[in-house]
Amino acid sequence: MSIITKKLIVVLLLLFALILGISTYINVNHSNTTAPKYTLGGDFNIPTADGLFKLADYTNKVVVLYFGYASCPDVCPTALALVGNILKTLPTATREQIQPLFISVDPTRDTLDKLKTYGHYFYPTMLSGTADRQQLDILVKKYGAYYKINQQTESAMGYTVDHTSRIYLIDKEGLLSDTIAHADIQNNLAKKVLQLTE
Amino acid sequence: MKATNLITASLIYGSLSFSQTVLADLSIKEGYLREVPPGQVISAAFMQLTNNSDNTVTLIGGSSPEVKAIEVHNHTMLDGVMKMTKLAGLEIEAGKTVSLKPGGLHIMFIGLTKNLQKGNNFSFRLNFQNGESQAVSLPIKSLIK
User: Fold this and answer.
1) Of A70, A84, A118, Cβ closest to residue B144
2) ipTM of the complex
3) By CA distance, what is B142's nearest residue in A?
4) DSSP for A125-187, written as a single string
């Protein structure tokens, strides 16, 4: 084998290594960029009676989010009253870092003005919003929540809304930090909120 | 004529014997209604219903001039999803107690024309499948602390 051939082999091997390196680098980066696709939560805006709520504006607050509907007689008021009652027990400095947000998945019955009064009943600074179905569906999916309009022809309700009853804790960076199942709100909300505030 | 008188008499007797929360056959314990947030027209009542009679009774709902409809509803939680459905009737066997409590069975008040505020009582009738009804007056309680 001539020296030239040997040099050529070395060059080809180096080139191969380089290509392998680049493709590995691209693969690693590629998987990094696709990862958020499978992460729950994320940025959103939602209309409220006081204007558009933009999550991105709440970088100094922990957002305590709940999806429900105002004519829900039991589960939603229970969850929202727990949120309000528990937040009221926290020190003022902590409370100032918390923004409770109620999002109604029943825009047909729940107007923004009605929702504002409804939210304030549970906690004085609770914000409440809703949007059109398309926007709600995107948001609900983004947070891994679920709702379904359930026609009730036999009931004066007309329809009820099946829905997940869960608290979403969004940290000061706007990232979904934790969720609390309905049955665990009483025991876990204060503890988890305190972990996210200063 | 006699039969009509008898029916009238029994109706009068029946309505007189309905006391506030106790009827000859059914007793109610720990009953209350939820206070309603301003602007809302829906509420729920919870209670322990005991059938003291020798027969099964079926609660089908209720009535009040201040509510469009009073129905028996149930909640079920499946895979974290809360689902509420109307029951055609809630059977209570002889001697048994049925518990209507948050997250489960409840009496739904749909279309209230009166705002329910804590500290007050709310009167309505519970209606049963056999045509009987029972007058009830329950305190209104708030979830807010």
Assistant:
1) A84
2) 0.80
3) A81
4) T-EEE---HHHHHHHHHHTT--EEEEEETTSTTEEEEEEE-EEEEE-TTS-EEEEEEGGGHHH
